[in-house]
């Protein structure tokens, strides 16, 4: 009932906006004269922004509930407020100028034979079985039956509950927000704010990335972000209204003057060389802010930048950047840079688990960054890497216990084989 009421409210504001536009187009000369009256234009602007905020707020309800989509509905696709490096070559090599996959293609790449078989099949009785994690479900089999028995499982620690909440959000993203209600404005109209005249149209994110319109409410164009904001670390840290414009998603953020992506806007973005090149510059802008550099545009390989130490300290102290990084990873997967996801996630796993850096980023890297990776096989490899290098006293909750036991058994067999080989070599030397 609550969802239905908010949906009707959204439709109501759409219709009001449409009829007002038609009405005032017919009375254009009279309306121009009315706008000259002091204060009228300002009130119209505020009313318009209020409508935009209500429409965006109405869409916040549909983020995904306990009734998750079936595995047959996979399509492509955390926000503000919160939480010497390894090099990695991405699994897929593709030129940034190359036309990427279409948005109606499956999101989660099919799994190869590695990490397949009976020992990787998990049921809901597993101690760390997560209802919202499809990482270990094969494409050719039905997902495990959902029931309420999860409440009686052991080891439901606070850390696991946090992971389960994160997994719900990330699965919702990987399945293209199936429960997200999308609203969009009818037609176009001119709005003047912050001394900038721009059009609110059906593709505001694309217009912003083409350099035609500025961000709101800051009034900054895309080229200004790239040229004037780079290296302005205090501004990048304390301004919270730009990240939704630089890395748009199909889900709303805290900036109600930013607009969510539509399917058509995503397709047009993927077909636009200008937009994709500008997105790459935005990515490099934020990498520099975090003390990271992009070493290879084709593979997405990243490494520490020269100023990494100071930037790592800032990243560790301001945990809302964890949510920004999650947004960046989601956006990369949606707008043509899916092959950039794995190198960035692997970088953070190496820094947090191997090098001991960024302790306040580690949980987000495991719960959010890793599960933003759309390629299921690569996601499994990253989980294996994380498990191999996880040294905390608390349990590793991001992977079913059965699979952890299989990995541990493989370690033991490998160690035993190595010991037997050394014994044989020693005997040969003595003989």
Automatic annotation (TrEMBL):
An annotated GO cellular component: membrane
Molecular functions (GO terms): opioid growth factor receptor activity
Residue ranges annotated for the Opioid growth factor receptor (OGFr) conserved domain, each copy included: 201-402
Taxonomic superkingdom: Eukaryota
Region (Disordered): 68-113
Entry-linked InterPro entries: OGF_rcpt, OGFr
Pfam families on file: OGFr_N
Transmembrane segments: 12-34
Alphabetically ordered keywords of this record: Membrane, Transmembrane, Transmembrane helix
Basic and acidic residues composition bias: residue spans: 99-113
Family: Belongs to the opioid growth factor receptor family.
Protein name: Opioid growth factor receptor 2
Organism: Poecilia formosa
Organismal lineage: Eukaryota, Metazoa, Chordata, Craniata, Vertebrata
């Amino acid at each position: 009932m609550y969802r239905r009421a908010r949906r009707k409210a959204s439709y109501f504001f759409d219709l009001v906006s449409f009829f007002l536009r038609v009405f005032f187009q017919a009375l254009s000369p009279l309306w121009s004269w009315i706008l000259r009256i002091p204060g009228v234009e300002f009130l119209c602007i505020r009313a318009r922004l209020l409508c935009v905020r209500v429409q965006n707020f109405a869409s916040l309800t549909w983020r995904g509930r306990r009734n998750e989509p079936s595995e047959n509905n996979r399509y492509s696709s955390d926000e503000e407020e919160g939480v010497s490096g390894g090099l990695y070559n991405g699994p897929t090599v593709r030129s940034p100028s190359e036309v990427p996959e279409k948005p109606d293609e499956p999101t989660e790449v099919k799994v190869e034979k590695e990490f397949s078989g009976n020992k990787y099949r998990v049921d809901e009785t597993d101690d760390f079985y997560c209802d919202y994690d499809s990482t270990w479900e094969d494409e050719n089999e039905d997902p495990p039956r959902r029931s309420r028995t999860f409440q009686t499982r052991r080891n439901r620690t606070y850390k696991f509950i946090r992971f389960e909440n994160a997994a719900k959000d990330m699965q919702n993203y990987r399945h293209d927000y199936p429960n997200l209600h999308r609203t969009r404005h009818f037609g176009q109209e001119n709005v003047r704010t912050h001394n900038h005249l721009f059009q609110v149209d059906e593709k505001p994110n694309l217009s912003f990335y083409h350099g035609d319109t500025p961000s709101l409410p800051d009034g900054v164009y895309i080229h200004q972000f790239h040229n004037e904001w780079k290296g302005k670390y205090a501004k990048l840290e304390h301004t919270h209204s730009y990240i939704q414009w630089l890395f748009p998603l199909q889900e709303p953020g805290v900036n109600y003057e930013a607009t969510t992506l539509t399917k058509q806007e995503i397709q047009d973005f993927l077909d636009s060389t200008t937009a994709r090149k500008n997105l790459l510059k935005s990515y490099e802008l934020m990498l520099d802010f975090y003390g990271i550099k992009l070493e290879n545009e084709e593979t997405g390989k990243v490494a520490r930048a020269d100023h990494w130490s100071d930037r790592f300290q800032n990243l560790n102290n301001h945990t809302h950047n964890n949510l920004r990084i999650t947004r960046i990873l989601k956006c990369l997967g949606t707008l043509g840079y899916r092959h950039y996801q794995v190198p960035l996630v692997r970088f953070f796993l190496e820094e947090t688990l191997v090098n001991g850096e960024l302790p306040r980023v580690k949980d987000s890297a495991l719960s959010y960054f890793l599960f933003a990776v759309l390629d299921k096989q690569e996601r499994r490899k990253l989980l294996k890497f994380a498990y191999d290098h996880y040294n905390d006293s608390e349990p590793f909750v991001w992977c079913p216990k059965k699979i952890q036991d299989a990995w541990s058994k493989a370690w033991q067999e490998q160690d035993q084989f190595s010991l037997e080989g050394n014994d044989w070599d020693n005997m040969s030397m003595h003989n």
